[in-house]
Amino acid sequence: MYLLNAWYVAMWADDLGTGVLEPRKLLDLPIVFFRREDGGPAAMLDICPHRFAAFSVLGHLLPGDRVQCPYHGLEFNAEGECVHNPHRPGNLPSAATVRIFPVVEQDSILWIWMGDPAKADPATIARFPLLVESSPSHISKRDHLTLDASYILITENLLDLSHASILHDGILGNEHSIDADIAVEQQGGTLSVTRLTPNVPVPGMYDLMYRRDGGMVDMWTTMTWQAPGCMVNDTGVTEVGGAKEDGTGIYGHHFLTPVTPTETLYHFCAVRQNPPVLDPSVEVDVREQISALRRMAFSEQDGRVIAAQQARVLNPAVDTSRPVLLKIDEAPVRYRRMLDQLMTAERS
Questions:
Q1: Under 8 Å CB-to-CB from 316, ≥6 apart: which residues?
Q2: DSSP run (H or E) holding 157
């Protein structure tokens, strides 16, 4: 189910404070994160090897980057080695070690490597510089939620944005944006799908960022996927017949990390592109509205529909082995093939 030798998003960097143990379940494994005294992130399996207590439940982060088990007080350093046994005779069993995971802080994200540590090359982490280089007033809330569905189904949802015209009607699309020119492009390890919908009534969120007149626009959307679960949606609107650079929109960042085969940790954030000059108080309001609208769309609309879809797929009484395919499914089908190839190569 999982590609192991890959960098996954564990959390937004700001969500990991100092002096705390922050638990996450990723790819079926309980992991605890903390910051070392030098500020750098660290991660280890959230299980004490003695009696299998969870470090994150009433455990402590002690001076010297030591994690103390809440059950019997064994202490482990950031390399996963037991460095203190408070019980006589105080010996340190050779088996008293905890698995650690490579973690890198980059582009306001904490990235974790879940596979062979010897293959964890930070240079291979996907880059998202807009998240740190853009004006803070143009970046929406760095948000996250957990959806009751496979990361594969959610990725397919994001690679087929024809659903925005129906499921997100009035917010991210409308009935007029259903009919679109679609192009799918695969380059190396990336997959992009573009939708162009000229001369349509502007959907609500785009109107909020643009002229606020409910008028006609040309609309574009290009979603690009990189393994294992990183996507950026270059989307916006411009004058009918106008150039893209004269319009405005967002770069919607989407990061999917499996929790279990049927549960996904979903991080998201939007960076505005070519924003019109607004009063600072209006800028704050627009940023907050974009954050709220996107969270509602992903949680209350996408989340509910895909969770129900997941339940149907898992129902043994229903045959879902041969889904009907439409033209709009080209990108999701290609994505499945690319992911299967990567996992097959890793296993072999």
A1: none
A2: helix 151-159
